[in-house]
Structure formats: structure tokens, C-alpha cells
Amino acid sequence: MAIVATFFAIDSNKRAKVATLKEQAATVKNLFPVEPLEPLVLAIATTGDNLNAWQVPKVLPEVRSSLYAAIDQVRERNTLEGHQDNVRTVAITPEGNIVSGSYDNTVKVWRGFKVSSLLKVGCERLRFHPVLLSVASVDMEDEAKSEAQTAEIAAKTCLKYGGWSDEEKAEFLVRKGFAIAKETGEIKAANRKLKAAKKLDKELDIKSLQQ
Fold first, then answer.
1. How wide is the angle at C-alpha 123 spanned by C-alphas 40 and 113, nearest 5°?
2. What is the Cα–Cα distance from 157 to 46, expressed in whole angstroms?
3. Are the beta carbons of 197 and 209 closer than 8 angstroms?
4. Within 10 Å of residue 147's Cβ, how many Cβ atoms?
5. Which of 7, 46, 89, 100 has a Cα at 20 to 30 A from 196?
6. Backbone phi, then psi, for 90, in 5-degree steps?
7. Is the pTM of this model over 0.70?
8. How far apart are CA 126 and CA 123, in angstroms?
9. Terminal-residue alpha carbon distance, the chain
10. What average pLDDT values come out for the chain (211 residues) when binned by 10 residues?
């Protein structure tokens, strides 16, 4: 009886997590008309949440699709060369390929787009952007706090899955530490970031990165 109860509890937990991830992926695409940067941050955070979720062993197609779409919206690189007009919609096949539809009335299949590759592109685009340095604090308004928390998750995702070198991670952690000290005054938390940075890059000149 206990085993059955445990099974149903795990299954219920998995279904709830999947529903949350799908909802977040849908929100990414709903944000496109507002600001291209915000959906990219949310897409990276959602992908990291999916990768870290023990209940969901694989990245959901909806999450992968939202990540690609968010990267495409930023348009710093032409990731889907071949269309003669803007990409209108993207989807992920069960095999992991991307299907894109364009305003030029063509549909193309792009093979080999792995989540790890997409995260590398997305995280590289945000590596020097101040949005990843956002720090959530108790005195923030709910909306601002939620956005800062999402950015913090995205930053952790990039550090873990973004393909950054140890030197790049160290530089980011230093900037994050300075941001924590400036925004919240939490010196201990800031110092933890600086110590973590020095472990990654012992030659790092912390003072040179101070703004």
C-alpha cells in the first residue's frame, strides 16, 4: 500500500512539474511582443529548471522550442540561414530537430540543434549583459522581485550549462559579487562569489573588474 501511495505521489509530482515547465515555455513566447531580452532570460531559466528537475529526465519539446525561439528573437546571429524572410514559428520534433516556418511561405527542418548548443548561444549573448547580475531583495515589488529571481536562475543555468570557461565563469562571479554588495549590502554573500571566482581562476585580478 505504501509503495502504491509513493508511486502516485511521484507521478503527481512529475505531472505538476511538467505542467509548470510547459506554462513557463508558453510564457516565453507570449513575451516576444514586449521585449526580446526578457523571454531569453526566462527561456534559459526554464531550461535550467528542466535540466535540474529529477521528475523530468529529458528536456521537454516545448521548453527546447521556447529556448530556440527566444534566441532567434534576439537576432544577434542568423541561426536559421536559408529563409528569405523573418521566422514566424518554430517547433521541435520528437527526434530533437527544429522545424521553422517563415513569412516567405517556406518550412525548413534543421537537424542537430541540441539543448546544450542552444544554451551556449543564449548564455553567450547574455554573459556581459547586466540583466544576469540582477539580485532579488525583500524590499522589491513583486513583479521586479520575480524578474530578478528568474534572472538569478538563468545565471546559475549559464554557469552550469552555458559552456563558459573557468575564466569566464570567474569574471562573471566577480561582477555578480560586486552587484550583490552594491544592491543589497550583503558583504558575506558577495565575498562568497569572489572566493568562488578565485578558485576557478587563481590569476584573476579582481580589482580590475570592479566598476
1. 80
2. 9
3. no
4. 18
5. 46
6. -135, 150
7. yes
8. 5
9. 60
10. 52 87 93 83 96 89 89 58 62 66 74 79 89 89 92 96 94 95 92 95 84 59
